[in-house]
Amino acid sequence: MFRFIGIHWNVASPSQAALAEQLRQAFSVRPDWQRVHQSTGLRVYTTGPSAGVNEAYALPSGQGVILGRLFRRGDSPLTSASPFELTEAEGRRIVHTDGRALIEEFWGRYVAFLPSWTGACRVLRDPTGALPCYELQLDGLSILFCWLEDLVEVLKIAPLPGVNWVAVAALLLFNRLGSQETALDGVQQILPGILTPTGQPESSPLTLWDATRIAGCAVELEPEIAAKHLRDTVMTCAQSWASCYEAILLRLSGGVDSAILLGSLCPALPPSRITCLNYHSPGSDSDERSFARLAARRAGTALIERTRDADFRLDEVLHVARTPIPGGYVGRMGTGRMDAATAVAHHARAMFTGAGGDQLFFELRCTWPASDYLKLHGFGLGFLNAALDSARMGRVSLWQAIKSAFADRRFTARPVIAAGQHVTLMPAEAVHAASLQHERFTHPALRGCAGLPIGKFHQLQELIHPFECFDPYLREAAPELVNPLLSQPVIEFCLATPIHLLTHGGRGRALARRAFANDIPREIAMRRSKGGMEEHITTIFQRNLAFVRDLLLDGNLVGHGLLDRKRLEAALTGRPSAMDAHVMEIHTYVALEAWTRRFTGQAIAP
Amino acid sequence: MTPNYEPTPPWRLADHVRACCVDGQVILLDLQRGKYIGVGGQLVSALPQLIDGWPTAVNPAGQDANASALIEWVENFRNQRMLIEAQGPAPKHPALDEPVHSMNADDDEPSSAFQWRQLLRLWQAAAITAISLRRRSLEEMASAVAAARARQAQQAAPDAAALRRAVASYMRVRPFAFTAHDRCLHDSLTLTRFLATQGLAASWVIGVRTRPFGAHSWVQSGGVVLNDQHENVRRYEPILVV
Fold first, then answer.
1. Does the structure's ipTM exceed the value 0.90?
2. B186 touches chain A (CB under 8 A)
3. Does A529 contact B38 at a Cβ distance shorter than 8 Å?
4. A534 contact residues in B (CB cutoff 8 A)
5. Which residue among B176, B181, B234 sits closest to A394, beta carbon to beta carbon?
6. Distance between the two ends of chain B, CA-based, in angstroms?
7. How far apart are CA A351 and CA B45, in angstroms?
8. What is the full DSSP assignment across A308-368?
9. What pLDDT shows up at residue B68?
10. Is A250 helix (H, G, I), strand (E, B) or coil?
11. Contact B211/A529, CB-based, under 8 Å?
């Protein structure tokens, strides 16, 4: 697990300098950590590097360092397979353009420490946010890190910051924390694509990657050409990532996205380098093996089929790693350990997934294609075609699609739309209090997109927030997670492509299906259904009902007024109730409660 | 003190009541009032001894059910005319094949000409359905669908290709008629009628789920779901099959 810690201090401050020296000594007894950069007032350390995958690229004259993996735009995957070296000229351009050249000429997964003309430190996280980056201030000194547990284990920092309960409430209501503020007091997150000064900055953050501007581009291409560009972009990114690893484990669900990923890798990789892994469990939508087999057979790759572990014990989540923003366990429930074991057995350091496809390729049953078309082009024959597409996608009448499109012209982007739909057990006053904080936790890119059409706004909202990449439960034991579809070039293409083009013909993912029609089995390309694991989630819940009751009924969330105890009790009786909460919602509370207990010092139940 | 059970249950569900077991609970559907009622706890396992056709097996644990609660429950449902005396066996209801495929007929390539005739058929079916939903009970609608199906059963069985063509044309022209989103009952009844006008039969289904409670309607032919995804309808336990 590749991780870093950066220490930035004001050399003119004796107390900060002394603290910096103290922290330096902490690293000196840790041979597993290497110093990759040192300059006035800044030291950067890493652990777990791997040649060709996670490296440190020094900038000229010791001015800074870029951690992670870079790819040059325009390079073929074959070129990407060669060891990457940042040239002197490229490094100078990156420094002189304040990181803008890094965003425009490269892509990948990185955190860059860049200098400023004042000598202060500035940090740039790549636009996908694949590598986390947080900042903690300690007596004026800045610590930049990606894994909070390192601050405890390596730097012996204690006590850790306390829980930011306002942020926890916002997380419950909005499902994410979009601004710099995290769920821990005093810990900020460095937002992707924004050059952020650390410490007590005299300058403000500078947006280098403007997702809102890209989303507003509305690049209209002929569907055939757009499909070709999409295919080329996805293939280049997928194959570039694959070139970093000798062997790959690929989560092959049987859905369109993972099939597209496999289809993108096959032209460049011998099948022996890819092992596909499919999970199934009893349930109406939990068994997609037939589709996974089709995809694996077509690619000529091995396919391992595993049953999700229905005996997964929820008390395992009590041992969640301490992180600035709580994550969830549902997607890993009953599969995480098998992922790790399978990766080890097949010598695969990384696990590739098709995550992000829903958002990128646009799979939402709605009438927004017509709304977006109308906003971009006005009324005309093209609008009627888009309206018919919308009617098919949204299962509404043509008249309703047209009516919605005209109504949506008045749409003004408000990130709180539909917030709170899935928190039926949160007291009304807590919901109200949290909703008043929406500006505070809204991503800056979403505050200035009033002119975006409704469909494009919702797509942007889904893509602007980074996907979790570290496993807080398995930690270092988990294989490295790689989501090639969420590469910067793919995100930029899909954001810039109008929704009515992404769904041309009245189907979700229409453009992607068309682009990869010859690369994936026809049965998968035509699939409308989507796999899930609802019964597995319900089974786990029912088998652990006693634990859930013990954990939640008198827990921190109830104690801080974020859960209504009476309603919660009714939902956890195991009997039919008019106050049934969705099982997913309760799992969310379990994950959050377990996370809070790691910071409030409550004993972990055996 | 537990009641002295007779070997044959003395009661059965009224003809206009359907029941199914979901997640350890029994859901009842009163077709006359269009109302769902949930039954849980010890009653679920105690009532098979009293009600013929109750959708759970007799469970010795049900012997511990409070006798007065049982009697009160039975009296209450008798007063609502949902339970009647079991004079003879409970009627058998049609079985439903497990939904294992989705037709996805809307992916078929459209024919060159717009199908005005199909659109007229659809408008007619949708109008009749809309009026029925306003003026008739579920029981009456179920009887009408069953009667239509019985008439079609006397004709030759339709081939799968004809059914697919009909469903494909339904999907193609539906946007010109009505909104199906969040109107599964309307959509399913309309499709059933639409198919019937062309001598094609399919089963109209209502299913229920819990956690949270929900009801859904779809149309199925054998193991193929015609107007939804089979993965979606499998989340629901069928409670009414016509």
1. no
2. no
3. no
4. 235
5. B181
6. 41
7. 47
8. --TT--GGGGGGPPP-SS----GGGTTTHHHHHHHHHHTT-SEEE--TTHHHHHT---SSH
9. 82
10. strand
11. no
Distance of CA B43 to the CA centre of its chain: 24
For Cα atoms B167, B169, B174, give the angle at the middle one, nearest 5 degrees: 95
In this prediction, residue A463 carries a pLDDT of: 94
Q: Is the CB of A580 less than 8 angstroms away from the CB of B106?
A: no
Asked whether the beta carbons of residue B179 and residue A530 sit closer than 8 angstroms, the reply is no
Show the tokens assigned to B3: 């009641």
- Reading the block at residue A57, the tokens are 């690229």
Q: What would the mean pLDDT of B66-82 be, rounded to a whole number?
A: 85
Among the listed residues A139, A144, A140, the one whose alpha carbon sits nearest the alpha carbon of residue A114: A144
CB contacts of B176 in chain A (<8 Å) are 397-398
Half-sphere exposure of A593 (CA within 13 A, CB side): 29
What per-residue confidence (pLDDT) applies to A248?
Answer: 95
Distance between CA atoms of residues A320 and A329, nearest Å: 9
pLDDT at A74: 86
Judging contacts by C-beta atoms under 8 Å, the chain B residues touching residue A285 are: 231-232, 234-235
Q: Is A581's CB within 8 Å of B212's CB?
A: yes
d(CA A374, CA A389): 13
All residues of chain B having their beta carbon less than 8 Å from the beta carbon of residue A507 are 107
Beta strands per DSSP E along A403-476: none
List residues bridging with A47 in a β-sheet.
A3
Hey, are the CB atoms on B179 and A396 less than 8 Å from each other? yes
This prediction's pTM = 0.90
Q: Which residue of A has its CA nearest to B184?
A: A395
Model confidence pLDDT, tens digit, residues B143-200? 999 988 887 766 656 688 899 999 999 999 999 999 999 999 999 999 999 999 998 9
- Better-predicted residue by pLDDT, A514 or B62: A514
Among A392, A398, A575, whose Cβ lies nearest the Cβ of B40? A575
Which segments of chain A have a pLDDT < 50? 578-579, 603-606
**Contact criterion met (CB < 8 Å) for A575 and B179:** no
Pairing label, strands A480-482, B25-30: unpaired
- pLDDT reading at B114 higher than 90: no
What angle do the packed helices A368-377 and A454-463 form, to 10 degrees? 110
- B148, B196 contact by CB (below 8 A): yes
Residues of chain B neighbouring A548 (CB-CB closer than 8 A): none
Residues 192-231 in B contacting A (C-alpha not used; CB under 8 Å): 210-213, 229-231
B36 has a chain A CB within 8 A of its CB: no
Compare all CA atoms of chain B with the CA of A394 and give the residue at the minimum distance: B181
Q: What is the mean pLDDT of residues B44-66?
A: 72
In the β-sheet with A248-251, what is the strand arrangement from edge to edge?
A302-307, A274-280, A248-251, A350-352, A480-482
Q: Which of A225-229, B91-95, B140-144, B207-211: highest mean pLDDT?
A: A225-229
